[in-house]
Amino acid sequence: MNLLLLIIIFTAVGGLLSVLAAAVFLLLPDRHRAAVLPHGISFAIGALLTVAFYGLIPEAFAKVGAEQFQTLSATILAGILGFFVLEKLLIWRHCHSGSCEAHGDEEAHHAHEAHDHSHNHGHGAKSAGALIILGDSIHNFVDGILIAAAFLTDVQLGIVSSLAVAAHEIPQEVGDFAILLESGYSKSKALFYNILASLSTVFGGVLAYYSLEDLHDSLPYFLALAASSFIYIAVADLIPSLHKKTDMKASLEQIALIAAGVLVIGYLHSVVHHFEAAG
């Protein structure tokens, strides 16, 4: 299949379908949604870390000589620190627009288990909604670039990367929906703006396809940045939310679902590789 078409399809999977899945998820009764969401977060952690350490990082190092290993490692480190700074700036901007409660901690933005507080629907809340849409658009655009970079390196890597993006985007989109609804947006408007923001994933992928093909030597560094993004999201934003539950049953469920994310992505990686080799 044409590589550009694959990029368009799988950036849509990572963006648009995650929005629709989140919209369907919001139709569940509150108690069911609260029970299911942490399981999705646990699975996403395993998926993201597996793609980063099993796919992206080994592929990046395989494409450079030993003399570039230190530079590539520094890129991963710089990426993780850079994503921390970017998220800190976004939180700071939310606080200075009077909407700290809408984005006050990791759960409000990524784990999203605290949607039942009451929010002010005035100027501050509307500003929070607008910032969520803008931030989500930028985030999705970057995801599109990273997915395209993975596809330009190896088709199987592109497929598992897009699936990992979808795995962590669904719980994030659920949270974005909740913030928009609590900011005074109707359900139809919240869905419309989230779909609009998700299209930036496809735009980022198409743009990267036409530009990164001419920057072949830079691809390992884009893969390193993709890995640092996945590692940061999993370790800094998702894992802390799991520590809110400390009982043995919940802990064992978390471990089992993280392991399931690892096994599913690892299995998909090997299946796609097998079909690629056979073709």
UniProtKB/TrEMBL annotation:
GO cellular component, one term: membrane
Subcellular location: Membrane
Keyword terms of this UniProt record: Membrane, Transmembrane, Transmembrane helix
Listed transmembrane segments: 6-28, 35-57, 69-86, 191-212, 218-239, 251-269
Keyword Membrane: yes
Database matches in InterPro entries: ZIP
Pfam families reported for this sequence: Zip (PF02535)
Entry protein name: ZIP family metal transporter
Organism: Methylovulum psychrotolerans
Membrane topology: Multi-pass membrane protein
Source superkingdom: Bacteria
GO molecular function, one term: metal ion transmembrane transporter activity
Record's keyword annotation contains Transmembrane helix: yes
